[in-house]
Amino acid sequence: MSDLKGKKALVTGAAGGIGAAVVRALRAQGALVAVADRDVSGVEAEAHLPGNLLEPAYADGLPAAAKAALGGLDIVVNNAGVITRGKVDETTDADWDLSLGVNVEAPFRICRAAIPLLPPGSAIVNVASCWGLRPGPGHAVYCMTKAAIASLTQCMGMDHAEKGIRINAVAPNEVNTPMLRTGFAKRGFDPDTAVAELGKTVPLGRIAEPEDIADVILFLASDASRYMVGAVVEVNGGKPVK
């Protein structure tokens, strides 16, 4: 994927597991990267754009800020996301606002602001989820938001292909990230044991590592996927949602 050398990329959720892996991979391929998250002080990148994606003005301004900082913008990776667990009758207004704000509204705003700035040959990659394509139990709002971003990706892919902007998404299943491990700990499970047990349910024998997802994101951001538009690519190790 040498075509990424010199490309300018914006990555949201850059301090998390998948986001950090994407940033490392992009920079290893010679791309210049602007990182966005609440705290990006520990992330090595060419530009740091900390802020709260729940603030509309921040999300609206990210693409322009990245372009100004990097001297251009070719790639946008909408990776930031939150997982709200529970059935609908267990979901609070705060859960709803957080999930919709981070998982749907922020990427919508960022895409809307980025598309007029992106040149032909550029790419947007959104992070959806297998749980948005085939919803599982006990994650009603999370599944809904990831279904929304998958559908939005498909619509935008068709709408903006004529401009030479390719918009696709990756749909992971479980990934060994700090967010997943924190969730296990909050529920009283030992994260190492829980991750190992979860891995036994995957045909490949383990859950995904962040790098497994990052490599697919880089593929979708590169010219190697030049004929892919509006695709939602599952990266699940063969494990169905259940």
Report on this model:
The chain has 242 residues and is of the alpha/beta class. It folds into two domains: 2-173 and 210-235, NAD(P)-binding Rossmann-like Domain (Rossmann fold); 176-207, no CATH class. The chain is 43% helix and 13% strand. A seven-stranded parallel β-sheet has the order 3-2-1-4-5-6-7, sandwiched between helices. α1 links the parallel β1 (8-12) and β2. It is an enzyme of class 1 (oxidoreductase).
What key phrases describe this protein's structure?
242 residues, alpha/beta, Rossmann fold, seven-stranded parallel sheet, 13% strand
Question: Outline of this structure?
Answer:
With 242 residues, the chain is α/β, with parallel strands linked by helices. It has 8 helices and 7 strands, in the order βαββαβαβααβαααβ. The protein has 2 domains: 2-173 and 210-235, Rossmann fold (3-Layer(aba) Sandwich); 176-207, no CATH class.
The tally of helices reads 8
Morphology: globular
Rounded mean pLDDT score? 95
What is the string of SSEs from the N terminus onward? EHEEHEHEHHEHHHE
CA radius of gyration is 17 Å
Helix content: 40-55%
Strand order across the biggest sheet? 3-2-1-4-5-6-7
CATH class of the largest domain: Alpha Beta
What portion of the residues fall into strands of 2 or more residues? 5-15%
Task: Please summarize the sheet with the most strands.
Answer: 7 strands, parallel
Q: Count the beta strands.
A: 7
Class based on secondary structure composition and strand pairing: alpha/beta
GO molecular function: oxidoreductase activity
Keywords: Oxidoreductase
InterPro entries: KR_dom, NAD(P)-bd_dom_sf, Sc_DH/Rdtase_CS, SDR_fam
Family: Belongs to the short-chain dehydrogenases/reductases (SDR) family.
